[in-house]
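note to self: dont lose this again. the chain is below, predicted strucutre after it. 386 aa total, dont forget to put it in the shared folder this time
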Amino acid sequence: MKLVKDLVDNIKPHFDKGGKLEKLHYVFDGFETFLFVPGTTTKHGVHIRDSMDLKRTMVMVIFAMIPCLLFGMWNVGYQHYLAYGMETTPWENFLFGAIKTTPIIIVSYVSGLTVEFIFATMNKHSISEGYLVTGMLIPLTLPVTTPLWMVALGGIFCTLLGKEIFGGTGMNFMNPALLARAFLFFAFPAFLSGEIWTDLSPEAGHSIVDGYSGATNLVAFDYNIDNIQSASSMFWGFEQGSIGETSVFCILLGAAFLILTGVGSWRIILSVFVGGYLMGFVMNLLAPAGDLTHAMHMPAHHHWLIGSFAFGAVFMATDPVSASHTPTGKYIYGLLIGAFAVILRVFNPAYPEGIMLSILLFNVFAPLIDHLVVEQHIKKRLKHAQ
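---
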């Protein structure tokens, strides 16, 4: 790292005031502070000494997503070769998936960071760190078949209209990555719904196997719950879906990492799962007795395993900017997200991925939830003081 540090120090004067590349100072500063802890200190006001800054916090979230990313790459290849009835090694599956997934990740980062760099240069402020996570979340929530131009459009949209227009990182009232996913879903539904989850690039000498279906468990359960896979298969992730959402096991590994490092809120994660289970249980009680294939009959815990429910609970609902901040508010916020997600799934087949819309909805209500919690706390304190 000393070699890299020396190189950065040598070219830094060109980006400082009076240098040839002065206009790009904040872009350079963004790269420098990403690689190394800033050498500056706070001079005014009370502050906390800590080894973590926002960039390091964001990197922790990226580390937590690595199991989902690696498994997603493998699963992309596995589903591709499965559709053609070909027997392959795990390495062949992973290599195919990596080749298909890597361009999506690159385009996501390039498009969003370009907007970040432009705004940082125009407004003369430091590069916002939030896109370090957003740039990874967007690909993981998309099917591998998503066109690259659409990925770029999503990255630009969420950075420009989902964050920068409100003042940048820390000022957005909705999760930017989910906003990109929702924008693409509603703007280009043909590309993000239906049988689009498996890469069916032609394989020489092979044809798609008879009876192959591109429908995910999330789509299948809406018209017949008997069509979904076993709970164990869904838990491990051997199914079709967005790149990073299929393996609940890998998602829980990421959740454990976030909780142990103190980056993710265990209150929100736990309450989203509890809210989804309780609403699923209520649906079971209210389910019509005559039709056992109805979506309301699906076991409550299966809602945790299908679609992006687990991924949303761990990586989206816990966004520190757009989520509730009070301890009690986090429980309420999570319970409502989980419950409303199941309601959307069961009663609105047009939007089976209810967790996405549910999180965005309660991002909007998070400040109100915190306000009501604080007001109730004040009333209780005043009552005891009298």
